[in-house]
Design goal:
The complex is a heterodimer.
Chain A (H helix, E strand, L loop, with lengths): L1 E10 L2 E11 L4 E6 L5 H8 L7 E6 L2 E2 L5 H6 L1 E5 L10 H5 L1 H5 L4 H14 L4 H4 L9 H13 L5 E5 L7 H18 L2 E6 L2 H7 L2 E6 L2 E6 L1 H6 L4 H7 L4 H7 L3 H4 L9 E3 L4 H11 L3 E5 L5 E6 H7 L4
Parallel strand pairs in A: 3-8, 3-9, 6-7, 7-8, 11-12
Antiparallel strand pairs in A: 1-2, 1-4, 4-5, 9-10, 12-13
Helix pairs in contact in A: 14-15
Chain B lengths: L1 H20 L5 H4 L16 H31 L7 H13 L2 H12 L3 H25 L3 H10 L3 H31 L12 H9 L3 H32 L4
Helix pairs in contact in B: 1-10, 3-6, 3-8, 4-6, 5-6, 6-8, 7-8, 8-10, 9-10
The chains are: A alpha/beta, B mainly alpha.
């Protein structure tokens, strides 16, 4: 658990982050979203002390982060940035091994960990371990950047616009991979982005920042249905907020008992996708199927529409 | 045409070695430049010994310049040393603009005749290219790579040694190469204060009005500078390739 307590950063007379307090739950993904200059990156960097706060403090699992030298703290916290920042003069394997080497792991353990991570990130160790970053595609470089951040099994992973440099298709894949990895390793992830779609897709909780202040910090559905500030509604978008709300619930969660003669949809599909499928097929209801092929229940258009209303 | 370049390179090297090892066999070539039966080939010392002494002084000076210039470059690109950048730059620029001959004139009374004043003059003259290239190399490291290095938990020292200096290496090597080559030519003036070197041949030619000597001294020095430049450029390319820094 990360507690941010009344954290502020000032440069001269300019306040970049202004008294932010928030609690980030263990094993969750928290997304900090805001326009450029909102102070979101500064807030993130104060967690691993790349930037030292002017006021306030950060506790990780109850321990004040200023209790040890900053570079030792950072070895326990994963860090991935936009444009990956891979070391161009080191191979993929050496890049991934950076933090384990700093921590003095033995070579056999490092080799095993590098291989495990390459496999997790769908990079064949035989082909990629010895490759240099410039020989990889943008998507592969980004995956190596995240693998490097996770190498020493950190409990916390900070990500600053990690997918900002990727094209939309690769970005969607990278987001799915991140969700898988978060489930697999149980890492607490704090991710900064300016992209509200990304925030809604990844975040268990979303923090909206503007001009250095934290405007609202809550579950995505609450941001939509009970925005604390006009800026939050502007960020989440008013015109398609009903569809956004539908996209936050899966068919499995919303399925009602009973059967239907309509098309089958996956329990993992969002209500938005199910609605689109029903409109397309001209059907009134759908059967919700689990991934193992068992029937979970059914959904009607009316039931879906019900879910697209606040409260 | 890499084949052609290799042939020219090899020919130049063979020519230089042949002249240094068997200078007398080139006597007929230089004879037309002499008058009144003066010797066509330098006869007051061994040309090979002089060439090696010349190179030795240049390399010693370059090693010292490299140590100081890279050290200074690292210092002034650290946050704590940034305030020394203008001062260091001024000092290094003085080293380059102060004529080496004048450095000799100032240092001879202090350290006496011989290799020492030459070493000092070459050292001061060779600082600038290495210093400036070190600074550019360190300042142009991609900011994301540096941020990642810090974010991973490298200490300032680890970041410098394992990320910044390796990334700046191609430019630093280029600076050393420029400094070395400039000083191969400049070192000839050392002979005016009794340092052993190829300048001796040129000065002997000037004193005895022997154009053959002047030409020999100049040609050997020039050929050495070109070969050194070419060889070091090749070495740089190889280092950068194996370290994947291109």
């Amino acid at each position: 658990m990360i507690s941010v307590e009344n954290l502020s950063k000032q440069y001269g007379a300019t306040t970049v982050v202004d008294g932010v307090s928030m609690v980030i739950e263990r094993n969750s993904i928290t997304v900090i979203v805001g326009t450029s200059g909102s102070g979101k990156s500064t807030l993130l960097r104060m967690i691993n002390r790349l930037i030292e706060p002017t006021r306030g403090r950060v506790l990780i699992d109850g321990h004040d982060t200023t209790g040890e030298p900053a570079h030792l703290l950072r070895r326990r916290i994963g860090y991935a940035i936009q444009g990956h920042g891979l070391f161009p003069h080191r191979t993929v394997a050496e890049n991934i091994a950076t933090v384990p080497r700093l921590l003095g792991w033995d070579e056999a353990r490092i080799r095993a960990r590098v291989e495990e991570l390459l496999l997790v990130f769908q990079l064949d160790p035989g082909a990629y371990a010895g490759a240099f970053p410039h020989q990889l595609s943008g998507g592969q470089q980004q995956r190596v950047g995240v693998a490097r951040a996770l190498a020493a099994e950190p409990a916390v992973l900070l990500m600053d616009e990690p997918f900002g440099a990727l094209d939309p298709i690769i970005r969607a894949k990278a987001q799915d991979d991140l969700l898988d990895i978060q489930r697999r390793f149980g890492t607490t992830i704090v991710l900064v982005t300016h992209d509200m779609d990304e925030a809604f897709r990844l975040g268990d909780r979303v923090a909206v920042m503007s001009h250095g202040r934290l405007l609202q910090y809550d579950r995505p559905a609450v941001l939509l249905t009970r925005p604390a500030d006009p800026f939050v509604s502007r960020m989440t978008g008013v015109s398609d907020r009903a569809m956004r709300l539908l996209s936050l619930t899966t068919a499995g969660e919303a399925a009602l008992p009973g059967v239907s003669d309509g098309p089958a949809v996956a329990a993992s599909a969002s209500l938005r996708e199910v609605l689109s499928e029903l409109l397309w097929r001209g059907a009134e209801s759908a059967v919700v199927m689990d991934s193992d092929g068992t029937r979970r229940g059914h959904l009607t258009i009316a039931a879906i529409l019900e879910r697209g209303r606040p409260g | 045409m890499p084949g052609m370049a290799a042939i020219v390179r090899l020919a130049a090297l063979v020519l230089l070695l042949a002249f240094l090892l068997m200078p007398q066999s080139f006597a007929p070539l230089f004879a037309p430049l002499t008058q009144y039966g003066a010797p066509p080939i330098y006869d007051q010392g061994n040309l090979l010994t002089l060439a090696l002494a010349h190179l030795g002084v240049v390399c010693c000076a370059a090693a010292a310049s490299t140590l100081v210039a890279v050290g200074l470059g690292v210092l002034v690109t650290r946050p704590s040393g940034a305030q020394f950048l203008p001062l260091s730059r001024t000092l290094v620029n003085i080293g380059q603009t102060f004529p080496p001959v004048a450095v000799l004139a100032v240092t001879v009374p202090l350290v006496g005749f011989g290799e020492k004043p030459t070493l000092i003059a070459l050292f001061a003259y060779g600082l600038l290219p290495i210093f400036e290239n070190t600074i550019v190399g360190l300042q142009t490291c991609p900011p994301q790579v540096l941020e990642a290095a810090s974010g991973m938990g490298m200490s300032a020292r680890q970041r410098l040694l394992s990320v910044e200096l390796p990334l700046a290496l191609p430019l630093i090597l280029e600076g050393i190469r420029l400094s070395l080559v400039i000083n191969v030519g400049t070192a000839t003036i050392g002979s005016t204060v009794a340092a052993k070197g190829l300048g001796e041949v040129i000065i002997a030619g000037l004193l005895s009005n022997n154009n053959a000597f002047i030409l020999q001294g100049g040609l050997v020095t020039g050929l050495m500078a070109i070969l050194l430049y070419d060889g070091l450029a090749g070495l740089e390319r190889r280092i950068c390739r194996t370290a994947h820094l291109e």
